[in-house]
Design brief:
single chain; about 200 residues; mainly alpha; about 80% helix
Length: about 200
């Protein structure tokens, strides 16, 4: 890698990291809540491991929280899959709008970008004014990796915290303490919506 290329990559990383800072705050917080609920109410063994694996394989705050009762009840995989499809169907429309920008991407990278096409990722990637398709693809890839790492860290930390606390406190007490945490998702949505509305109003002036 030449010095010029390295400088360009570093600049792209700094740009993506700066843009991802609001997501960092949201994903680590919401991920922590999802990890806590999974460990406290999901009735799974080795909760930190399950927290890590689940957050690495899927990034959906809604299902990570709404799906906990189904996990605890050991509901059918088919029912869980249909519920996930219904909740996350809007992401298909995000993907259609980005396919043109990603048409030159290798298959595995394209699949990863589609997997990571959350509301927050889509908003940042669609707002990126980079005209060069290659640079835009690098920006999207770096942004996706950063935001994915935030989610993994949040969920794993939440599940690990409950697992450690469970060694000292009655698990039933922990479950009681976590009642109402599900509403954190609503709070996050309101914050994100307000921030996006303020940004749109500012651009319109």
């Amino acid at each position: 890698m030449s010095a010029e290329t390295g400088t360009a990559e570093g600049s792209m990383f700094r740009r993506a990291f700066r843009d991802s800072l609001p997501v960092l705050m949201g994903y680590t917080t919401m991920g922590f809540v999802a990890g806590v609920l999974l460990a406290a109410k999901g009735d799974v063994v080795l909760a930190p491991l399950w927290g890590f694996l689940s957050s690495a394989l899927w990034v959906t705050g809604t299902m990570s929280i709404a799906g906990v009762p189904r996990i605890a009840a050991r509901g059918s995989i088919t029912g869980f899959a249909l519920m996930t499809l219904a909740v996350n169907f809007r992401y298909a429309f995000y993907g259609f709008s980005m396919l043109g920008r990603w048409k030159d991407a290798p298959l595995l990278r394209k699949c990863y970008l589609i997997l990571m096409l959350t509301d927050e990722n889509y908003a940042l990637e669609a707002a990126c004014a980079e005209k060069d398709r290659g640079k835009h693809l690098r920006y999207c890839t770096i942004l996706s990796i950063l935001n994915h790492s935030y989610w993994i860290a949040g969920v794993t930390a939440g599940a690990s915290s409950v697992a450690l606390l469970g060694m000292m406190v009655d698990p039933d007490a922990i479950r009681g303490w976590t009642n109402g945490m599900e509403f954190a998702m609503l709070a996050l949505f309101l914050v994100i919506f307000t921030d996006q509305a303020r940004g749109a109003l500012s651009r319109g002036k």
